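Q: My labmate handed me this sequence with no annotations at all. I'd like to see what the chain might look like in three dimensions before we decide whether it's worth expressing. Could you predict it?
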Amino acid sequence: MSKNDILLDIKNLKIEGFSDEKWHPIVKGVDLTLRRGQIMGLIGESGAGKSTLGLAAMGYTQPGCRITGGEIMFDGVDLAKLSEGKKREYWGNRITYVAQSAAASFNPAHRLIDQTTASTIRFGIKPEMTTQVEVLTAMRKVVEEFNTAAIYITHDLAVVAQMADFIKVLRHGNEVEEAPTRDMLSAPKEDYTKSLWSVRALEKEPTQEQTPILEIKNIDAAYSKVKVLNDVNISVPRGSTVAVVGESGSGKSTTARVITGLLPPMTGSIEFDGATLPNKLEDRTKEQKRRIQMIYQMADTAMNPRQTVREIIGRPLEFYLGLSGAAREKRVVELLKMIELDERFIDRLPSELSGGQKQRICIARALAAEPDFIICDEVTSALDQIVQEGILKLLMRLQKELNLTYLFITHDISTVKAISDQVVVMNLGQVVEQGKKDDVFSPPHPEYTELLLSSVPEMDPDWLTNLNKVRQAS
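A: Here is what I predict for the chain of 474 residues:
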């Protein structure tokens, strides 16, 4: 078969989702054609229908969704008309799906090595290769070598510029436009697409230097005797935002686990507001727990899917503040308004919320405890550009109004530049440098910081190719 053979041909696809006791259209007659050896980039804001369309390419819909029209022709077979058993013959054999959440991708009953060996050999990924550049290069190489095809769903426009041959833009379940990547980047036709291309103009007002509210001193930590943090020292001034950056496995999230008491350190101490915190979460007082809260990367796995918004936000109100009945209900509504939602959402389940709405609910849950210090662990990484901007604006407004202090864990350098006062760079469980944002991002840089900054994709479709040429030559 030639490279130009059509592998997937979706025509006039219509999908509905069930919420508020009725069915609503969420994909409204979308077409998609994908040939062997091609990568199609799907972009659009939260709730546009990207993931729903991507799953439908397998003939699959999430619970609470149904296909109501159209064809999903995969290699000449209409997946929409196959029985569940017949579709399963394709899943994992001819069609695979990589979920947004790594936590949802693995079987917790089996060791990681048993679940990843075959795929890592095929992708040529070594254990130490964890930067975005290597992963993108490996994925592109697999498509080229095996003459397969891929749908790449992302909110990161610089990444889709490196990966996709074509880009399709979705909004509210409709196609906005589709074009070859270079054409879409240089001359998008629709105003909505142009708005996605605009550079984020957020910039945090500098905070006045204050005494530290949190100090991490000489922390060593390990998982099952494997040392993962080595002599970590971080100082977080009250009322500021300190961003912690580094590649996957650098120790960012492990540092957060140590601060929250989920991973007791081997040595060192955590001082909060002048007092040393007990290493273990269970040894901390309710008041100590209340004052330090955390917002997680994946709102999907951070919330109980069977609990309504009322229960999710109400639980910390009852646990930390003793609120119940009408007082609790009133405060839940107040918190919803604080995160720019309203009481219409109070009886919804997480499955009835968009990605941005879910993360706002997680923010409200953290605020319910009335904390002083919030750890934000990759809270915008799963969100599109427009929703990211809304969440960051919300967090900055709340910080100013409530005098909150943030430790912001992220790999997104543009987010760091937008919201941080200070930056901590981590690598292999150690702090490479910490300083004011402008100082850290001004050259000369330590070798690792230079590598990290040079690995941030740009909106140039030749960026990845050119970078790999430079690295291979050096």
